[in-house]
What does this fold into?
Amino acid sequence: MEFFALDLETTGLDPRKDEILEIAWVRFLEGKPRERFQTLVRVAFLPKEVEGLTGISPERLRRAPPLSEVLPGVLGRLAGKVVVAHNAPFDRAFLQHAAARLGLELPEIHWVDTLAISRAIWPERESHALPALREVLGLEAREAHRALPDAEATGYLFLEELAAFPYLPEPTRAFILRGVPLPARELLAAGRKEGGREKTVLEEVFSLLSRKIPGFQLRKAQLGYAAWVERALREGGVYLLEAGPGTGKTYGYLVPLLLAPEGRAVISTRTKALQDQLWHRDLPALREALRAGVRVALLKGFDNYLCPWALEREGGLFSGSLRKRIQECLSEVENPEVGELYKILGFDP
It folds into this structure.
């Protein structure tokens, strides 16, 4: 799988009168950056606000090559390729007008707009600007509004979009496919590949987790465990899986459950400590990383909860400070966040 991630820095927003001052592209092959290109471009005038935004000085631009020397090579390299850009219509318009001014013909380029795809996949995000998405994806913080780091970030964003695509509702997938050219549709439909072999959905997801969750490392045994769980969910029946310590069983069964398109699941743990770990650490981390809109609930055994009716019925047997404490317990039970004995009593009986 090959695509090019492109970014332009310009002196303004109007391609009819403003100029390109920096061009960069990164060639991605099989999910990794393999080739990079970056150049400044000589311009007639650099606005102060653009200088402050990019950190590029007029002196550096005066030493840069003119666009007439740069653009033919760039267009030749991108010709016939899938090119992804964040707000692709902006970059396309600037290249089109720049080529026309130089008497060049813009070659066929298969454009993909990562901004439009991001809005379709993650409509709940407050911002789809590249710096905000870079932070969400956990990408290394580098110079903002510089072409090469932004091009590389755009490429990684597209990889995240490719990984998320198979799990989208069918109407959303159809909407995205309508907005991209045929070669890019084939990328989205086929999925990413590694070592000449198409990666499975679980491999894609666990690869995503290794980038999103600090310290997470995929283990082959964990992936095999998850594959059996996914098979059990898909085909039904009864499965008994046993795995030793260090396998990564928790994520091994949680990931297939969170990805399951429908149905309910009950997870029963041997200890309260493991249950608390699932509830407070593992489930929140996975739901955030996978953007999984799955509803979850915590339920413990009957003896872990206070019975208000029994407490009120037997309240007459107590007196003094104990009766006062009972009343406090009853008032705390009215809070839907409270109800477990250890939260009310302050210790686990």
